[in-house]
Structure prediction request, 259 residues.
Amino acid sequence: MHIDLTHRVAVVTGGANGIGRATARRLAESGAHVAIWDRVPEIGEATAVALASEGLDVHFIETDVTRRASVDAAVALTITRFGGIDILINNAGITRDSQLVKIKDGSVTGGMTDDEFDAVVAVNLKGVYTCTQAVVPELLKRGGGRIVNASSVVALHGNFGQTNYVATKAGVIGMTQVWARELGKRNITVNAIAPGFIATEMTARMPASALEAMQTHTPAGRLGSPEDVANAYCFLSSDFAAFINGAVLTVDGGLVIGT
Prediction:
């Protein structure tokens, strides 16, 4: 299957590293012009320069998805650079893990803070809402487009110590299905991916024992790679996925059936 995104303009939020960087590369390799929206200019610029050195048309725009003004400015700069937007990959996400309450000797000794909860909601849930609302008018001008949102397998089954993260990723599935209904008649498809455990900078900070347990519970026998997820993003952005709308595609090596 050869995916051809020639002349399409794609936005990848959180595209400076990890899954986002792999996705920016995969889309650009398929012919798309790619705007990386990310918050850290040093990393974003370095990523764009590195990908451009491979002959790929990738441009970095400093963007904070939690701020409406920043997102609106990023839309305008993307249009100035590339002439429009056809694809939105809502990939940006953070974690601030903590138990709801920490209990010792039968008493509560701590737990997730409001700041930890609010920070994750601001990026993972409201950021998806803000970026989508800002980009949809541009998709309409182009006669349609593709929106793909980042959820997670934990949205379907929960995960210890991730009340905030799981809530946002479950919310993303709900928004995806609402928008698929609202925008489908406008030739805009809206889908989500639900990755399992992926080998990124985020998981690299986890204890080796935890990573080993993840791999053991994955029938494929390995952690996923950023490229595994990037391929799913690229497929759902393509004409091959024209009749897929409101779907949640798990990219987990069989983790869900292996647990």
